[in-house]
Amino acid sequence: MCPSFYIDHTQFPDFNPFTDYDDQHPFPPPDFDTIGEHLPPLEDVDHTINHYNNHFHNQSINLISKTKSTSAAFSEPTTGSSLELLTRYRSKLKFLRDEATEETEPDCAVTLSTVEIIKLAAEKFINFSTQKTTGYTMFTHPYGSSAFTRLSIDEIREVELVFQLLTAAERVGRKQFEIAGKFLTRCGWVANDSGTPVERLVFYLCDALQTRIGKETGRPVPVKPKKLDGVKNENPNALGTNPTFLAIHQALPFNPVLQLCGIQAIIDQIGTSKKVHLIDIHIRSGVQWTAMIQALAERQSEIELLKLTAIATSSDVQKVEETGKRLECFAKTLSLPFLFKILVLSDITEVKQEQFEVEEGEAVAVYCHIILRTMILRPQGLEKLMRAIRMINPLVIVVSEVEANHNSTSFVNRFTETLFFYGAFFDALEACMSRDDAHRAVVEGVHFADGMTNIVADEGDERFSRSVNINTWRLFFARFGMVEIELSESCVYQANLVLQRFSCASDCTLENDEKCLVVGWKGTPLLTLSTWNFALE
Q1: How far apart are CA 375 and CA 39, in angstroms?
Q2: Residue 532 φ/ψ, nearest 5 degrees
Q3: Cα–Cα distance between 284 and 30 in angstroms, integer?
Q4: Are 252 and 282 in contact (CB under 8 A)?
């Protein structure tokens, strides 16, 4: 069913952030978010394997966990035995054995995805480990499942590569660093940063494990030549305003789907309000607001004023100013009354209610796009922000976040989550961009690589790359009296409409998790979009 009013997606792609509506105010290109960032001692209520089980295979599993009391109401799994990695994979991969008995083994005529290769490698890992094989005898041991019988030569090679990576990771978890190093050396013979998505993924995860070994032992980390030596990730929370974002934004459907669906959710909630006040907690390029400006300009009911308040820090205020000038020019071309305000803070979490300057009669909406997780390490600051937002009582809060548990205290849990999560992203880049694309190289070799290394190799305050899943956020938001709003048919329609613009649309999955939208790749959840307001007291 088509909604009676929705964003005209056919016009939004025509807006080019590099096109000047006013030559004096060039609009910087948008800002693609890296996967790694932070979030408060929010401890995840779902274990990694349980989290993926809900999406890959509908079966219940029993997991042993401890919940420690913290201010942010999250429970992190604790580090288990040396075979914890096997246990975590066993339930996830049971379906492989089930499929084998039903004669639905992988067919060599169909290329397996990166995540499917990982699953098969984990199945092999379980089979060898339960048979108590040790050392290099593992490599000559026959495969233990009929699911492997129809693999191509290349797929067998990739399964073996991931299998060795898993073995190395388990050895690192046991602190058997000498043996782990030997397995990583073997991986290095095949893995590279220019090959298949599996080879690239393993290449960067080997680096991450080597870095962890170096930190634990104090030994220097072996330096491998890379395509992007000398290129630095200047901002761990975002790509910055450079052409790489535009390339990724145009090639992959994830961000456009989240942005347009989120804007539609705001439009649904503000109704026919004549004064609309948008508060963007971290505006970046602001490209998504062009769709909002266009939609309101075309609406039949007259808009007296659209006000956009963007929070900025002293380090990015100049870029935010450029964004504001560009949006003002765009609104002027559509004759829409528009006011852009910048709220400059030393820290986002220091914002106070009165600084939002909400006026009587304004329909207020708050937009949080992949930003709340950057505050996971500072739960008190995050709580301050949520209390300030609560005081202005917006009609809707739109929250887009990474759907993963990168906040576990357990190295094994984080490695498992990283393997599957980034495996899906590398697979998506393979489907949507050429292997020699320079922007893909930057995303993989700088931003993804840094994120993976931080998640796998660092501990404590050094580990700033953190995410938690939607169930954990639900528990956290509930502490502030927030109530989840179901996405309208217009939002779902909009998400599907945007998705169909991409050639890889069939591989991008849109699913519901209660009232939120889960955006994934071939069934692996990657991002969520949820909408909230505050319960009436």
Answers
A1: 4
A2: -140, 160
A3: 7
A4: no
Whole-angstrom distance, CA of residue 77 vs CA of residue 534:
30
Q: Where are the alpha helices (DSSP H) in 354-462?
A: 379-392, 411-432, 438-442, 449-457
pLDDT in tens, 158-213: 999 999 999 999 999 999 999 999 999 999 999 999 999 999 999 999 999 999 99
As to burial, measured by CB atoms within 10 angstroms (0-12 exposed, 13-18 middle, 19+ buried), residue 250 is middle
Residue 216 CB coordination number (10 Å): 13
Q: According to the 3-state scheme, what is the secondary structure of 297-351?
A: HHCCCCCCEEEEEEEECCCCHHHHHHHHHHHHHHHHHCCCCEEEEEEECCCHHHC
CB atoms within 10 A of CB 349: 19
Q: What is the token pair recorded at 237?
A: 């929370």
Task: Tokens 């092999």: give the residue.
Answer: 124
Closest listed residue to residue 159, CA positions, set 193, 192, 190: 190
**CA dihedral sign, ordered 229, 252, 54, 529:** positive
For CA atoms 406, 410, 411, 413, give the dihedral sign.
Answer: negative
Two tokens at 462?
């050094």
- The distance in angstroms from the start CA to the end CA of the chain is 35
How many helices (H) does the chain have, and how many strands (E)?
17, 9
CA distance 245 to 32: 5
Write the pLDDT tens digit of every residue in 23-37. Answer: 333 323 333 333 333
Enumerate residues 6+ apart whose C-beta is below 8 A from 475.
45, 73, 74
Q: What is the pLDDT of residues 346-376, one digit of tens each?
A: 888 888 999 999 999 999 999 999 999 999 9
Q: What angle do CA 470, 518, 415 make, to 5 degrees?
A: 65
User: What distance in Å separates the CA atoms of residue 221 and residue 212, rounded to the nearest whole number?
Assistant: 9
Geometric angle at alpha carbon 93, from 87 and 97, rounded to 5°: 120
Point out which residues pair with 179 in neighbouring strands.
none
The answer to whether the Cα torsion of 191, 196, 200, 205 is positive or negative is negative
